[in-house]
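Hi C.,

You asked whether I'd gotten around to modeling the 167-residue construct. I have! Everything is below, sequence then structure, no commentary in between.
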Amino acid sequence: MHCPYCRHEDSRVVDSRTADDGAAIRRRRQCPACNKRFTTVENAMLMVVKRSGVTEPFSRTKVVSGVRKACQGRPVTEDDLAMLGQQVDEAVRALGVAEIDAHDVGMATLEPLRQLDEVAYLRFASVYRSFESLEDFENEITLLRVEHDAATLDSAVSDSSAHAGQS
């Protein structure tokens, strides 16, 4: 690491600490030539491999931008989108790989988006899963209804159990 003050080619690490919830390392360094101290931050780069074969750094902003289009006209706030971006970021980084396919990033976006807004989820899924017919939409809607009905049933069973315990 070059010294930013005297451009000496080397420096020594004086202190290291994690930053950004473990996603980065903050290092205090000292130049052996001029003895000045400076700070560096190291981030692990997650690269996204696009269909064309080109790689680019993972961008939470690009995830949010893609989802924003699916959420147009829906009751979704910028804070909701920021949280979704964070969830996708954490999910893909938790895979522990240096490179991930762009398609896999899109797939990691589906579940948080389904939890946020089912209509936006259907819009997004239709692109990422390449829906080609009305039948594809009908099948996905059927799955959503089954999950929705199961959640409603679980909630009703929990409520009746709670009331039975109070008797």
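If it helps when you're writing up: The chain has five helices and six strands.

Thanks,
B.
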